[in-house]
Structures are given as C-alpha cells and as structure tokens.
C-alpha cells in the first residue's frame, strides 16, 4: 500500500454506544518516556486487537545481544590417577630424580587420562632402569670377590707342578747328548771319500764347454742381422696394441664414474625407502589409536541414544492417541457425508430434435444413458426415401459431489468424455447431395469433433476427447437444479438433426449439523541425540613400494686386444752349451746336534674381574593434569509447524518457540552446583508459562516484572548432571513458548548460560536470532542506514473510498435519496509479502468486513461489481459472502474469531471469508497482493436526512484492523408552495379571492448544496392547477442563490432564469411544468449552489374552494409541496367599476432582495395566452 504523507491517521471506529470514536494516533506519542511508553503507547496501525506498541530493547537485552558468542570464566577440574601416584613414589624410592613441571590442561578426560598413562609409563621405565643399574653394580662387586679367591688357589697348585717338571727334564737331556755324539763320527768318514771323486768329474766337463762356445759365436753374428729386421716389425704391432689398451682404460674410467653415480642413486633410494616405511608404520599406529578412541565414543553415543529413544517412544504414543481421535472424527464426518451423498439423485437425459418431414423420411435421434453418466446417442441417416445407415456416439459425463458444512451439496460437473463414433451403412445413398457431416459442438458453439462422409461406408472412430466444464451447482436440502445443457450434436445433411445432453440433480437430504474435526496432530519430531562425532579414521595407508633408482648403463668395454706376438727371425740354432758345472763343494756329513729340552713352567689361569657398571642417576619429568571445557549454547526460533523462522516476517498473535540449546558437559568435570539460563525476553513476546514448563520439565522457571526469564536446573537435573562425571552428559533444552503481541514488532532474543562449580563459574552468551511482525512504518526503518530486513513491510491499513460514475472520490460530499453509492475498498496485503506463517495462523482465515450504516443503506441492494487481486485475478469465487444481520447468527467459530480480533461491526454488515485459507494465503497474501472490492448500495427509502457512513475492517490470521470511515450527507429536500396576492405579494393562503382577481402561486425550489457528489441533469417544477377555477396567465423563474457555471460565469441571485428553462402548460388538464434545460444544468459546477423559485400567475374565473399542490423533481427525486387553498365566493351584482390608477405589481419576497418581479407585461403578453396550450416556450 502507498503511504500517505500525513501526521496522524484519521481512522474512526464505529460503536453502538457512542457512534464514531476517533482513533487518531499522532506521531507525538513517540516522545513519551520509556516508563509510560509501555502503558500508553499504541501501534500506529489501526489495529483492533493486540494494540500495544512494542517498546525499545532494554539495556540488558542490548548488552546481551552485543555479547553474542562471548565466553568468560572456565570449567576446570583436576584429574588424578592412583597408578601415577604409586609410580612416582616407587621411582623416588628407587633413586630416580623426579621433577614436576607446570600443570597441563586438556579438553577431554580421555586426553588427560592418556597423558597420565603416558607419564606413568615413562616413570615406570625410569624406575626399571634405575633398579637395573643398582642391581648390576652390586652383582659385579660380589662376582669380583669370588674371582680373587679362585685366582689365589690356582697359583699354589701351579707352583707345585713346576718344581717336579724341572727335575724330570734335566735327566732326560743328559741321556740324549751321549747318543748324538756317536752318530756324528760315522758320518764324517763317509763324506771325505765322496769329495775326491766329484773333483775329477768337474775338470773334464769344463774342457767340452769351451769347444762348443767357439762354434756358437759364428752362429750368433748371422742371427743378429735377422733379428734387427724382425724387431722393427714387432715395434709397429706393439704400438697398435698399446693404443687399443688405452681406449679400453678410458672406457673403464668412465664406467667407474657411472658406477659411482649409480651407487649414490642406490643409497638415495634406500634412504627414501626407509623414510616411506617409517611414515607408513607411523600412520598405522595413528589409525590404531583413533580406532581405540572411536570405540569409546561409540559406547558413549549408544548410551545417549538409548535415553533419547525412550523419550521419543513416549511422544509417539501420545501422538498416536491424538491421531486416533482425529481419525475417528474424520471417519464420522466421512460417514455423515457419505450418507448425504447417497441421498442425491442424479438424472441425465438426451433431448433430441428430430426431423418430421414426410418428403425426407422422418429422421430421428435417440439417446440412452446409465446412472454413472455413460451415454449412447443413436441417429438414423435417411436419403429422402429410405434409411441408408445408423450412427452411434458413446461417452460419459464425469461428475462428483461435495458435501458442505451447512447441509447443502455442491454437484460438480468436471468434464464430458467422448469415446467413439461409429456409422453402419445399410443401403446405398440415392441422394444427389452426399455431403454429410456429423459434428459435436460445445454449448459455446465451439466445434469439438467433425466427421464428413458420404453415408455409403461403414466406419468407427475413437475420439477419446474430454472437454472440461467445471460447472458447480449448490443444492440446499430438498432442492433441485433445472436441466443443464452440456453439449450439442449436429447431424448435418439434407435436414439437420440436433441433440443435446441434459443433466439434473436433486438433494433429498435434511440439513445436518456440521461435524467438527479437530486439528490433525503433527507427528512428533523425534528428539535427536547429537552424538559425539567419531574421529575420522584415516584410510589405511598403502604399503610403500620400494623406490628403484634410475641407474646408468655402463658402456661396453671392448675385448682386450690380443697382445701381438713378436715375429721370431729364422735363426740358426746354436749348439747347446752344456751348463758350466758347479764347482763341487766338499760334502759335509750330516752331523746331528742335540737340543736339550727346556721346561716351560705352567702359568696359573687368572680370571679377570668383571666390569663394575658406572653409577647412573636417571631423571624423569612429570606434570599434573586438568580438564577444561567451554560448552557453547545456541538459540533458535520456530513456529508451530516446527519451521525455523529466524530472520522471517511472521504473523502477529502467532505462537513461536525460542529453543535454548546448551552443548553437552564433557567427562571429567567437577560437581555442578548451579546451572542457570537467563533470557531477557523481548517486549511483546507473551510467554506461555504452562506450555513452557510442560516442554521444559527439568528447569525451574521464574520471571521478573521486566520480562526477564530465569531458568535454573532442578535438583533432579543437577543430580543427573553429577551422576556420572566420568562420562559426557546432555543438557536438556529449554523451549520458551509464547505469542507475539505487537504490530511492527522486532524480536531479538539472546540468552546467557552460567555454570557454577565449587571452584568457579563459566558464562557463555548465545547467538541472537530475530523475527519480525508486519506493520512497520517505512518512515522509521527497522535498521536505519542499513539493509531493510523486511523490504515490503509497511502499515496495515484497510482503506475505503466512495466514487461517482467517473471513478472520482466523493467522500464527504452530499448525495440524493436515489443515489447509488459505489464503495471501493482495499484489503491491505502488500505488507505480508514474503511472510512465513504457520498453518495454525493461516487457518484462522482472511475476512473482509463492510460495515454500512443500517438506518441509511439498504443492505439487500448490494451489487458486487468486482472483487479483484492486485494482479488482476477475479477472486470472487474464492470468497464466501455472508450478509450478517446480527452477530448472533454467526457460527461459534466466527463469533469467537471476531471477538478475539477486536473488530466491532455494528448491526448489519457484509463479510467475505476466504473459502480455502491456505490456498488464498499462498496465492495472494504471501505474495502481498491487495484485494480490491467494488460494491454498490442504494439508500433506504425511509431515510430522508443525515450522514451516511461506511467503514471497512479486515481480519487477517486472527488480527483485526479497522479502515477509515467514509461519510456522505443526505440533506432534506425541502420545497414550499404559497399563494400571493397581486398587489403586495403577501401570502393569502386560506384567504379569499374574488372571481376575476389575479393571484400568484409561488413555487420555492430546493437549494442544491455546494460540495455535492453529482452533476445536475434535472431540476423541475410540476404544478397541477385547478383549471376549472384558475386561468393560467404567465410565469417567471428567478435564481435563489448565486450560480457559477463551468466557464466561470456567475449568475447573480435574483436573476431571471427563464432563458434556461422550458415550460409546458396543458390547458386541458391544468398541469403546469417548468424544467431547466439539461445542457444548462450540465454547466453548473458542483462547487456552486443551485436553486430557483418559480411564479405562476393565474386569474380566478370561478367561485369555490381552490386547492393547489406542486411536485418538485431533482435528478429523478420527487418531493411534494404543502397544499394551499383559497376561497372564492359567488360574484355580487355587477358594479360599475371606477377608473383607478393601478399600482405596480409587487414581487413576492425572496429573502434578501425586495421589489416586484411581477411586472405589467401589457397587452402583448395577454395576446399570447391562446398560444400556450401544449406548446413549449423557448426563451
């Protein structure tokens, strides 16, 4: 809706006791102090219920919202372990130096215990080493003492053995020397004989050698020459050989370098393989540890799930009980509706228009039907002499019934299905014209099927066509519908044979009470345990493949060349020279020497001392551990459909639930001495303490005057939290249930959790969800300077105006008794665009109320010109219209709804109720499409004067809003008639008039007021003169007020208006009529008054009582004047009249302007009397 630039909102509320009550809400009300604001300030929306204006957030609420997500304090508990304590004591007793470092904080009990276990293991290992060192030293010292004694005993034994051995050796040596001396003497004698023979053989051999050497010298000279030639050839071969050897050595050197590089590559590959294998084994160890941790987590989760399953099972049982009650009601309603539907008669018949023509053979069409809507139409085909064939159409009328709450039945004809058309030829077609066409035509004249043929061929066609009708007929109990035509059949040829399908329904039911079905229970949302997530187990690593070095290929080493063999010259062979004999040495006899035996004394075997280990003092570092946890908290908000509505626009009055969820407390915690939640609820959230306590049974709930809610854990809950401190424990959530009671509300909500232990406390602040209700003035945005969270929102203002036939507003203007009042009202939905509403709210419905003034407006004259949505949709059929003569006639549900909404229509009123609230909400309300009602009423005939008021209300999802009151004024149409004398213009009503006297009838017209709602097209006087007694002479007409025309011309009061009129006098009947011309009246602007007085001059021509009454007409409205009377006696004897000077005739008094308007018209006017009659006078 477009916002008007106004400082206040001029809405009025109609009440029985006090009429119109002003409900202007001025902007100045916003300047009230915070204290009085909550008591006195009301919403800027014209609300009829829940009208309090939401106060700004308190300092507590603002401060808490700014602390969202903040944590302070800590939850810390020491973790002890008997094994750790014992291990440290044992280590110290064993001589281990045990040092203690600062305390280490862990985030879980399992981590702390693992730390202690690791320390215990290290201390135990140090103790074992220390004890082993001490034992080894003591054992070595003991062993060395035993070795010293054994070595002493060994020395005494060896000394005795050595003394005996030395004596035995000396005797043995003396015997051996004597034997050797005798043997040496014999050997010397044999040697001397042999030496003499050897000398003779030596000298003979020397002579032979000298002869051979002389011959060989000659051979050598010859051989020297041959050798020189051979040597040169051998040198060349040797050079080539050496060159090949050098090449081989070069390649060998290169291959040595390659082998060196390959060796280094092999070393690097082995190093990498070792690293990969180490990483692989470390990963396997990590996986094994994680799997152990996860097993502990799974056991904890299974215990939590068991508790949740128990709660869910109880909720399911409650839901099934409610569902059974609901299903029972549904079944009862279905049986009642079935009974209703069984009492509905459905009939279908075919109306066939045959051809009765003897020349062409009396062609006919017949129809047969079944109760389920199936039908068969048959017709014959005649060529003028005989039947040449038969046609048959089959199909079905598809319909169903709907039972209504008031006992009526709605019969719905959904569609008609055409199955087949077949034609059977039985004779030859003798007609000259063989152009036959069988057609099916809709009731709108649209062709559905057409089959041209010549009548001489048998055929059958499947149509399988369905036309949608969607016709609805509501039958009150014991009523019937007339015959309803569905389609037409045309058998077009020489003579056309047409048929129609007609259906009818009859409701044989009595009105029955409506069975109310309770709301279908929503299946409970199973409580979900948020399991502690298991640590992700890394995938099992792939066992590393050995890195293979890229080795270089050695170059092939050529085969070693064959060492060249020096060519040997063909030399003469020297004679062999016997070897020079060795000068014989004298043969020496083999004289034996005697080596006396030396006695080696026995050395004792001395055992060495074992090594005494060095004294080692082992040192180990330990530290105490503790568990620290910082549990978080989260707030969310849902509607009654359990839909998250954080950041959404929701209906005022709707039920919402703030969910306060705290993270589980971890194992290893201290005793919890207090667990408290503090929630400064936003203003305008009305807490349902009973529902909240039901959903949050573990908490003790208290509230203060400022709306702050405190929730403390009950003793039972504290006992549960402290029962198994070596395990994680879930904290039950809190559900704060309530409703929103402000228009334009912004509901931010944050809560704080404080956990107290014997050693301290921990505080954490939640996030801040927000929801909004519609009705916010765009001039005061919710988020000044930032994004608008509800961009389509604005004030909720149903509006109404009254318009003329040109569509211009005539609010506040006057009307005539026969006026048709056309009201254009808007049901304001644009602020709801994008809203999220629960079914509970939507099913409260959408209602528009037109509350007209009962005394003035004829409610039965209502004409609904249109009801359209902003997108152009005609929504008339989506709304149920009710003419409410009294609220007592409404059903209990509507009574309660109107009472709760606070709207206060007075007396009779009309209301339009959405038939299907859910569909209507989705199609129009949620899209923000306003609904405009164009309605016309007539005024009651008995209402003659006063204000005509009309007000609108809209009721959206249980919330009422009043619209502006439009006002029109019906002034009383007052006209007068008087009879004046000729001389002074004085009234002579009820007086005497002599025969022959002239009198003037004064017709006082009604002054049409300024600021009116209509243009003038009729302003007329009709005076029924008593023509037997009065002779019409003349007339005149003058302005009663200043008159302004559309071109700016002003006709002054008292001006002669004859030129703008037409006068007709019927001398036969005496009826006088003076009417203003329509083209002149059309020039009179609405802002100008208009009024005229007419004067009719007559002459009394007969004695008697003369009565006169006039009628006045303005735009079709007729008003009678009072009746005037004059008395005329019989004429006396004639008296000769005396000549006298006539007085100037006086104008009758018109108020402000004096003087006479009845001038002497002279003989010229009198001469025209004979021409008046039925002739119109054009001035």
Would you give an account of this structure?
Among the domains are: 59-74 and 633-772, Immunoglobulin-like, CATH 2.60.40; 344-507, no CATH class; 799-970, Immunoglobulin-like, CATH 2.60.40; 976-1128, Immunoglobulin-like (Sandwich). It starts with 11 loop residues before the first strand and ends with a strand. The longest helix is centred in the first third of the chain and has 234 residues, at 109-342. It is elongated and about 245 Å long. Strands 41, 45, 46, 48, 49, 50 and 51 form a 7-stranded antiparallel sheet that branches. The protein has a 6-stranded antiparallel sheet with strand order 3-28-27-21-24-23. It has a 5-stranded antiparallel sheet with strand order 7-16-15-12-13. 25% of the residues are buried. With 1179 residues, it is α+β, with helices and mostly antiparallel strands.
Describe the protein's topology:
Elements: E1 12-15, E2 19-22, H1 34-40, H2 59-66, E3 71-73, E4 75-79, H3 82-93, E5 97-100, E6 104-106, H4 109-342, E7 344-353, E8 365-369, E9 374-382, E10 387-403, E11 409-425, E12 436-442, E13 447-453, E14 459-475, E15 484-492, E16 497-507, E17 619-622, E18 625-629, E19 633-639, E20 655-662, E21 674-680, E22 685-687, H5 689-695, E23 699-703, E24 708-713, H6 715-723, E25 734-740, E26 746-748, E27 752-757, E28 760-765, E29 770-772, E30 799-803, E31 820-827, H7 839-842, E32 846-852, E33 857-869, E34 879-884, H8 892-901, E35 909-914, H9 917-925, E36 931-939, E37 946-956, E38 959-970, E39 976-980, E40 998-1004, E41 1019-1024, E42 1030-1039, E43 1043-1044, E44 1050-1051, E45 1061-1066, E46 1071-1076, H10 1078-1081, E47 1092-1100, E48 1104-1114, E49 1117-1120, E50 1124-1128, H11 1162-1166, E51 1177-1178
Helix pairs in contact: 3-4
